[in-house]
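User: Can you recover a sequence for this backbone? Please restate the input before giving your answer.

Assistant: Of course. Working from this structure:
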């Protein structure tokens, strides 16, 4: 039986660009089309103004998703900041009566109402100290020196300001899709006892899965994510 074609839309972490997911395009099975989404202010959209609010970023990226959507079966994944944006994207799509993903995959992020203590601690550090902190947790792109990092730090600071200004509505919007939570076992920015708190944000089931690695563990696990998406797609095809 040929696996049905599936699209996996991906939203990067704070300071990241669509480029962090492009290696996945070479490693995923042929039937899974990895579609990195580029937030404004970086990468191919570096000339555009940054989003200042998470719902604004979500509406923008939901539009890009719909422009590139060409299958009935798709998944949405976001890492850290990207998890918040992806959650708000699903809410935006549902509210507009538009197609929604089979599953929302949130990675490296506690539930939306919980701010990251590390992020709050480093937000006001001088550039040199912020760069050192990012390097210590693996958040500096390979080969990027401090002397070349001003543009990168500018993106980080804009993203951090947007995330720290974000508070979900009370009560929070509840989406109607399953949520799969991925967390790094050595990631100090998430807490195992809090991850099931994503249950307050969906009517669907929530599954939490821990993988080896620190905060940026996700990018080391393309095969695992591919196998999960393949399994869910196959299950959906059988039950359809």
């Amino acid at each position: 039986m040929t696996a049905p074609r599936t699209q996996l839309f991906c939203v990067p972490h704070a300071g990241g660009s669509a480029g962090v997911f492009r290696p996945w395009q070479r490693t995923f099975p042929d039937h899974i089309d990895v579609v990195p989404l580029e937030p404004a202010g970086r990468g191919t959209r570096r000339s555009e103004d940054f989003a200042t609010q998470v719902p604004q970023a979500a509406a923008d990226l939901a539009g890009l998703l719909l422009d590139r959507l060409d299958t009935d079966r798709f998944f949405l994944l976001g890492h850290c900041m990207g998890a918040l944006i992806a959650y708000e994207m699903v809410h935006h799509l549902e509210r507009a009566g538009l197609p929604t993903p089979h599953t929302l995959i949130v990675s490296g992020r506690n539930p939306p109402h919980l701010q990251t203590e590390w992020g709050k601690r480093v937000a006001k550090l001088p550039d040199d100290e912020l760069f050192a902190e990012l390097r210590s947790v693996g958040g500096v792109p390979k080969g990027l020196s401090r002397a070349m990092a001003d543009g990168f730090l500018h993106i980080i600071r804009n993203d951090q300001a947007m995330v720290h200004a974000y508070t979900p509505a009370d009560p929070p919007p509840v989406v109607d899709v399953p949520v799969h939570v991925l967390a790094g076992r050595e990631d100090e920015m998430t807490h195992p006892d809090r991850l099931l708190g994503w249950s307050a944000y969906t009517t669907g089931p929530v599954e939490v899965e821990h993988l080896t690695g620190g905060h940026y563990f996700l990018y080391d696990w393309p095969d695992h994510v591919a196998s999960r998406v393949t399994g869910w797609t196959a299950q959906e095809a059988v039950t359809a």
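That completes the design. The chain has seven helices and six strands.
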